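Fill in residues.
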């Protein structure tokens, strides 16, 4: 078997076999197939596509290119959740303790943020002492004893994806649905969960800008998971403006705690209820989404979910007193109002621009080696559909540097649009794929 022949085959629009895909991924991971040949294959795939069987075989080959996490020592159904990422997306911080407090096991691997979207691990490190650098033994023990653990992704998990993504990033071959879906799902399948919930974002702050593309991606990923004998469901959720009101690591932690106390923002709370009920149903503790929503409601109102977050933070070395008293979380030195330049309805907030403002303040990474400031960020006081008068406060900037604050403030104002006509309401959940 020769890589040259496989490139020719895909260039002609023909279907690659399971054995051919395994040969290709194995050879590339080991360094036996050079970058220039794999680049040609990625471009041929972008031009001619892959069918569902090819996409599943590609995903499974990538998943098996390194270690496969064995969660068989954890009792019960293990449920994982993945978001395609966005601005203000702190969902895992509130959702995982809710679900774990209802009896479903959460064994999750997460990453750090890069660019304007934040990472779950960075946010969790707002709790002093918290670490995801735990052993697999600790990880499994924590899930068995308290029902939840989050561990950092290891280099040995789906190494083919890491190598392929770096190549696609510099060869303009990122935006193919099969390649995107296989990249995401290879890591999820290697992580060992029995059931996976996907939160596919759509809008200006998401990787997928249109609702149609988001549904296509969700459908491909659900089909891959089912092909690998996993329980699968996906939601399409709005990322045309930031999720919730807080953007920035410690600020988002505080908002997640507010939500567990029953006083979170409406859009974020709605998403947590929906995803939580789906995870509980897939975890076997309820038979319908309606029953699941009642369990989520009880977990929040009874305080069980908040207590579970305390247990989780303590088990991984963090200070649980910060859960009970969020004022102990990292705080910025500067808090400055951003005032509306005119009156009218807010018709648009360019979502990725808000994320970039947080990045400018120091709340995100330009490169993987960058350090981040956990305290900085943005609080949105007014969002799309709200009416404001001139000089009303529409947001707060949290900063530790005057120059960065001024740059971020100007850019944030430019992200807002105003009009005398009220925009149409937009729902946070735009659809479900199962």
């Amino acid at each position: 078997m020769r890589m040259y022949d496989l490139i020719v085959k895909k260039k002609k629009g023909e279907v690659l076999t399971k054995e051919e895909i395994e040969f290709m991924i194995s050879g590339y991971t080991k360094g036996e197939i050079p970058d220039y040949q794999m680049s040609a294959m990625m471009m041929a795939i972008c031009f001619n596509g892959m069918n569902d069987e090819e996409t599943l075989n590609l995903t499974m080959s990538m998943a098996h290119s390194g270690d496969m996490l064995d969660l068989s020592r954890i009792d019960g159904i293990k449920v994982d959740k993945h978001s395609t990422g966005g601005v203000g997306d702190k969902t895992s911080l509130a959702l995982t303790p809710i679900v774990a407090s209802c009896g479903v096991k959460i064994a999750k691997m997460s990453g750090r943020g890069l660019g304007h979207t934040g990472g779950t691990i960075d946010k969790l490190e707002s709790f002093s002492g918290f670490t995801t650098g735990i052993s697999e033994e600790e990880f499994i023990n924590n899930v068995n004893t308290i029902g939840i653990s989050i561990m950092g992704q290891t280099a040995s998990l789906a190494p083919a994806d890491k190598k392929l993504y770096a190549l696609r990033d510099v060869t303009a071959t990122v935006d193919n649905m099969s390649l995107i879906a296989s990249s995401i799902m290879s890591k999820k399948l290697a992580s060992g969960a029995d059931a996976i919930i996907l939160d596919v974002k759509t809008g200006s702050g998401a990787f997928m800008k249109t609702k149609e593309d988001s549904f296509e991606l969700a459908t491909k990923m659900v089909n891959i998971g089912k092909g690998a004998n996993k329980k699968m469901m996906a939601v399409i959720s709005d990322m045309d403006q930031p999720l919730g009101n807080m953007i920035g690591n410690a600020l988002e932690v505080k908002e997640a705690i507010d939500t567990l106390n029953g006083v979170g923002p409406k859009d974020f709370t709605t998403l947590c209820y929906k995803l939580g009920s789906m995870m509980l149903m897939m975890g076997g503790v309820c038979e319908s989404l309606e029953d699941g929503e009642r369990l989520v409601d009880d977990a929040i109102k009874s305080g069980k979910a908040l207590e579970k977050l305390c247990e989780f933070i303590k088990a991984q070395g963090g200070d649980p007193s910060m859960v009970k008293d969020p004022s102990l979380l990292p705080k910025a030195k500067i808090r400055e109002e951003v005032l509306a330049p005119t009156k009218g309805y807010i018709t648009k907030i360019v979502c990725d621009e808000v994320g970039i403002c947080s990045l400018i303040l120091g709340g995100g990474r330009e490169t993987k080696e960058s350090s981040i400031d956990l305290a900085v960020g943005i609080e949105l006081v007014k969002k799309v559909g709200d009416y404001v008068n001139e000089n009303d406060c529409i947001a707060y900037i949290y900063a530790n540097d005057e120059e960065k604050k001024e740059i971020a403030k100007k850019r944030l104002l430019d992200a807002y649009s105003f009009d005398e006509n009220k925009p149409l309401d937009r729902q946070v959940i735009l659809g479900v794929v199962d």
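The chain is about 45% helix and 15% strand.
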